[in-house]
Amino acid sequence: GQQLNQSPQSMFIQEGEDVSMNCTSSSIFNTWLWYKQDPGEGPVLLIALYKAGELTSNGRLTAQFGITRKDSFLNISASIPSDVGIYFCAGQGAQKLVFGQGTRLTINP
Amino acid sequence: DAGVTQSPTHLIKTRGQQVTLRCSPISGHKSVSWYQQVLGQGPQFIFQYYEKEERGRGNFPDRFSARQFPNYSSELNVNALLLGDSALYLCASSLQTGHTDTQYFGPGTRLTVL
Questions:
Q1: Which residues of chain B neighbour A42 with C-beta distances below 8 Å?
Q2: Each residue of B31-71: pLDDT tens digit?
């Protein structure tokens, strides 16, 4: 099935470090979303982006909707242990979300 | 307010059997979508329903079917189960259907096919 290209696939960082991940697509999306998924649970919405060029923050999280509408990035500042999990980007079409493969974040205390 | 709920949480079936998964959307949400998430991958779109009508279908075989009820809850049915159907099945609800209608996910049903 269709997927977005998300990188990196995994990250191993020290607590307190900043994190950056990005997502690209060959197709244009009018809405980009970032979700976090913990083991055995469903994805939880972190940030929604509705306008090309938009930069949105949610606490320590910052995400941007690329000008071309084909990419997005997510930054996490000053990481803490509860940031551990899998982060997914998603492009929203009229009926469906198209997801990236996910970025697995591991934090060493 | 209650979020999206799904039942059962876990299910074990054997090849060839049939399974029904259930989803209740967030109160006030009229659209329900179903996704399949295989281990190590992102969710893949299966169906979207809005006001009891199918609005979108992903690249899944006819063994997969769904319906939405007048109270906006939904069921996903999978017939003639294959080993490859083992996955986390996620339900998401949104107010309506469109580019700006954010989808909120339930905890999922973990299906294991033996």
A1: 4, 90, 92, 105-108
A2: 999 999 999 899 999 999 999 999 999 999 999 999 999 99
Per-residue model confidence as pLDDT tens digits over A32-42: 999 999 988 99
The end-to-end CA distance of chain B, in Å, is: 37
Structure tokens at A27: 């197709």
3-state secondary structure chain A: CCCEEEECCEEEEECCCCEEEEEECCCCCCEEEEEEECCCCCCEEEEEECCCCCEEEECCEEEEECCCCCEEEEEECCCCHHHCEEEEEEEECCCCEEEECCEEEEEEC
pLDDT at residue A59 in the model: 96
Query: Which residues does residue A107 pair with via DSSP β-bridges, in sequence order?
Result: A13
| pLDDT (mean) for B20-24 | 98
Q: Which residues of B touch A (CB under 8 A)?
A: 4, 33, 35, 41-45, 48, 55-56, 58-59, 90, 92, 97-100, 102-108, 110
Asked if B45's CB is within 8 angstroms of A98's CB, the reply is yes
* pLDDT score recorded for residue B96: 76
Q: B21 near B38, Cβ under 8 Å?
A: no
Nearest residue to B44 via CA among B55, B33, B30: B33
Distance between CA atoms of residues A17 and B51, nearest Å: 46
Supply the mean pLDDT for chain B. Answer: 94
Average pLDDT for residues A18-44, to the nearest whole number? 94
